[in-house]
Amino acid sequence: MRDGLVAVLTRFGHQVVEAVGDAPALTAAVEAHKPDIVVTDVRMPPTQTDDGLRAAIALRERDPDLPVLVISQYIETASAGELLDSTDARAVGYLLKDRVIDVTDFAAAVRQVADGGTVIDPEVIRHLLGRRRDPLQRLTPREREVLALMAQGHSNAAIAQALTVSAAAVGKHINNLLAKLDLPPDADVHRRVLAVLTYLRS
């Protein structure tokens, strides 16, 4: 699998600075090379449990801007949830190995995560839905409507037109829903994107 990933990444123009077989070597390679992205399996030696995931989370704690794409043989909602909870939803990915078979999509996912995006396998999202309490339950029906339109990419003005309300009312709804979703103002975080991600996970 590792050799195959190296071949795919190289084919799509990436330089693989190191390919390693266990979590300690992964940590050492990142410290040595400062890569643009880390691609790791959840399960790695030495324990063959979640060593790769643990290494990814630890690396993100040291460098929150380090893009990390985790792949897994099986749907492990606890692992996916822990990875997402340990990040601010930027530059992170979690894919099942079945998705790697489509090399074009996999290469696109690598690029998206490296560029700061988030890529979560649809099957993983579906399983996470059953595990997590829906945070959208805190929102009023109108706030959910506004968030749904945000998720479709609409601007405040477009949302106001769609709902036949003023732009000021839309702004108020957005501020309320951001507060209810525990997304306080932060200069380094795009709260609108995080709100949409919360909507998609729910």
Automatic annotation (TrEMBL):
Keywords, ordered alphabetically: DNA-binding, Phosphoprotein, Transcription, Transcription regulation
**Alphabetically, which GO biological process terms does the record hold?**
phosphorelay signal transduction system; regulation of DNA-templated transcription
- Give GO MF terms, alphabetically: DNA binding
Pfam families on file: GerE, Response_reg
SMART domains recorded:
HTH_LUXR
Query: Taking every annotated instance into account, which residue ranges of this chain make up the domain HTH luxR-type?
Result: 132-202
Task: Give the sites modified to 4-aspartylphosphate.
Answer: D41
PROSITE patterns given in the database record: HTH_LUXR_2, RESPONSE_REGULATORY
Indicate the segments forming the Response regulatory domain, all copies: 1-112
Which InterPro entries does UniProt cross-reference here? Answer: CheY-like_superfamily, NreC/VraR/RcsB-like_REC, Sig_transdc_resp-reg_receiver, Tscrpt_reg_LuxR_C, WalR-like, WH-like_DNA-bd_sf
Q: What is this protein called?
A: Two-component system response regulator
